[in-house]
Amino acid sequence: MRPLTLRLEACGGISFADDQGFVTIGIGRRIGVLVLLLAAFPLRAAATLGSDATSVDADRVRMQAALLGITRNDRFAVHQLQAANGTTVREYLTSTGTVFAVAWEGPWLPDLRQVLGPYFDAYQRNATVVRNGRRSHGPIAIRTGDVVIQMGGHPRAFTGRAYVERLMPQGMQAASIR
Questions:
Q1: DSSP state of 76
Q2: Mean pLDDT of 110-137
Q3: Is residue 48 part of a domain?
Q4: How many domains are contained in the chain?
Q5: 96 and 35: one domain?
Q6: Which uninterrupted H or E stretch holds 161?
Q7: Is the dihedral of CA 152, 155, 156, 161 positive or negative?
Q8: How far is CA 45 from the centre of its chain?
Q9: Which stretch of DSSP H or E encloses residue 61?
């Protein structure tokens, strides 16, 4: 793969450069800045379900999120992040540092492939079946093995949660994941 260089031109265009030279595309300056920012800092979502605590910090950086706080008790910790797009993500970690649940709310859905990790393909297959098997819009709930995914809302008001039952601390109720 050849390296690609992006450059915002004073004339309101963007230049793309590789080893063959520059190609300039004329677009408005504001749109050019937006394109460069999106290329340089893609927004990603929260920690991957079932992964370890290092994914929380890595995802915070990728989301350009602010850490609003960490709440701990003897069984689990909750890291609350707010992404640059306004979505709040709460990541639930066991005392051993495993992400057992993720919840979100805000104007945009998180990147579900990132959030669900290895469980995403099962979610995608089951979501299609659930959506096709009903006549109305509204929240969906999917249970595949020991993973539960619940989500609902509409643009500018999404909520959801996903958790792995076998990873949940002993005695914890799913209703407390929000």
A1: E
A2: 84
A3: no
A4: 2
A5: no
A6: strand 157-164
A7: positive
A8: 2
A9: helix 54-63
Rounded Cα distance between 22 and 136, Å, is: 51
Please, what is the average pLDDT of the chain?
Answer: 78
Q: What gap in Å lies between CA 175 and CA 44, rounded to an integer?
A: 26
Taking the CB of residue 63, how many other CB atoms lie within 10 A of it? Answer: 24
Nearest to 92 by CA among 144, 21, 165, 27: 165
**Do the Cβ atoms of 149 and 123 come closer than 8 Å?**
yes
84-88 contacts at long range (C-beta below 8 A, 24 or more positions apart): 84/43, 85/43, 87/45, 87/158
| Joined tokens for residue 104 | 């979100």
45 closest CA partner among 97, 93, 117, 96: 117
Separation between Cα atoms, residue 8 and residue 144, nearest integer Å? 47
Look up the domain containing 35 and give its range. Answer: 5-40
In angstroms, how far is CA 178 from the centroid of its own chain?
A: 16
pTM of the entire predicted model: 0.70
pLDDT tens digits for range 39-58: 333 334 346 788 888 778 87
